[in-house]
Amino acid sequence: MPPPQQEARSNLLELTPHRHSYSLSPSLLLLLLLVPLLLLLVYILPSSSRFLRPKFSIALFSRKKRSFPSRHSGRASGQMAEEGVVTVYNSNVVADTKKNPFSLKVGMAQMLRGGAIFEATSVEQAKIAEEAGACSVVVSHPSGAATGISRMPDPSLIKDVKRAVSIPIVARARVGHFVEAQILEAVGVDYIDESEAIAIADEDNYINKHNFRSPFVCGCRSLGEALRRVREGAAMIRIQGDLDRSGDVVETVKNVRSVMGEMRVLNNMDDDEVFAFAKKIEAPYDLVAQSKQMGRLPVVHFAAGGIVTPADAALMMQLGCDGVFVGSEVFDCSDPYKRVQGIVRGVRHYTDPHVLVETCSGLAGLHLGQERIEESEGQ
């Protein structure tokens, strides 16, 4: 008969588990090793991928048609196409992007692509343009000013047009007159046109457009001039032709063909020839190289000057323009709504001759100056 202490000790040993009674299988051990590794990959890789994103880029131009924004929604959205993003300035060439969001300005200008912009000298003309389908209106003074020198439009006229229409508003400032541009931006225009069509305030210097929040439109007559304006901050290029409101498109066609011809020459060049070409046309090398890479100008480009018929507008589109500017002379006819609507349709359906037949038929005569240059486009 064992003593009580020895019996209690034997019972305790029976209840104690053996040291090697539990063992891990190889599959369970492998699973325990893989779980921390997977968690490490999930949390580290997404946070490190942000360093691979470009710091400053603009969107390329897709062929997808876009609906024209209203004046109130266009400024707030600033949306750009995410397809085919290419880095433009990844150095300190352009000022701080917080002050000069050039990519945002280019995106706002791109929203006007494929449309017609009409010059309006009154609230009534602006309403007609909006109802006929214009993507924007340029507010300007009547051409017959008593002083003979055109300046920026009256801010009160701009405010009246803003209250009357919902499409984006463009206003003109004299070349080099940055104070007029400051006033126009304070009024609240959506785009500022540094236009040689009114007058030139500074013959040697253009406005530094990077100092403004509003996108700028600038005129040109050659590829080199267009790229110089882009370097200054222009978000849209206007290939300018006739400035006399004569309804003659010969100068506009000449300049458009010149720009497009220089682009074709650039596209067929070797990379070694681009530097010499940039020096020849007096344009920034990086923008010339980017234009060659994109196969087009890095910003939208419209044609302007002498465009008064749907056929004129379709011609500019087929030559490679992204849209057209139309002068206020198109309102000087018996049925301005029908003519404006015809030009808008001519821009949208520029490759369809059957639609162009309809748009060019039955339009009333157009008066430019003292002469009636068109009796009937349907004949």
Q: Give the overall form.
A: globular
Largest sheet: 8 strands, parallel, barrel
Question: What portion of residues is helical?
Answer: 40-55%
Write down the secondary-structure element order.
Answer: HHEHEHEHEHEHEEHEHHHEHEHHEE
DSSP summary: helix tally: 14
Provide the CATH topology: TIM Barrel
Low-confidence stretches: 47-69, 72-98, 369-379
Topology:
Elements: H1 4-15, H2 26-48, E1 57-59, H3 71-77, E2 85-87, H4 102-110, E3 116-120, H5 123-132, E4 136-139, H6 155-164, E5 169-175, H7 178-187, E6 191-200, E7 216-220, H8 223-232, E8 236-240, H9 250-267, H10 271-280, H11 285-294, E9 300-304, H12 310-318, E10 323-326, H13 336-348, H14 353-360, E11 366-368, E12 371-374
Helix pairs in contact: 5-13, 12-13, 13-14
Please characterize this protein's 3D structure.
This protein is an alpha/beta fold. The protein has one domain: TIM Barrel (Alpha-Beta Barrel), CATH 3.20.20.70. It has 14 helices and 12 strands. It has helices at 4-15, 26-48, 71-77, 102-110, 123-132, 155-164, 178-187, 223-232, 250-267, 271-280, 285-294, 310-318, 336-348, 353-360, and strands spanning 57-59, 85-87, 116-120, 136-139, 169-175, 191-200, 216-220, 236-240, 300-304, 323-326, 366-368, 371-374. The chain has an 8-stranded parallel β-barrel, surrounded by 8 helices. Strands 1-2 form a two-stranded antiparallel sheet. Strands 11-12 form a two-stranded antiparallel sheet. Helix 8 links the parallel strand 7 (216-220) and strand 8 (236-240). Helix 5 packs across helix 13 and helix 12 (310-318) runs parallel beside helix 13 (336-348). The model is unreliable at 47-69, 72-98 and 369-379 (pLDDT under 50). Residues 102-304 form the PdxS/SNZ N-terminal domain. Belongs to the PdxS/SNZ family. The chain crosses the membrane at residues 24-45. Pfam families: SOR_SNZ.
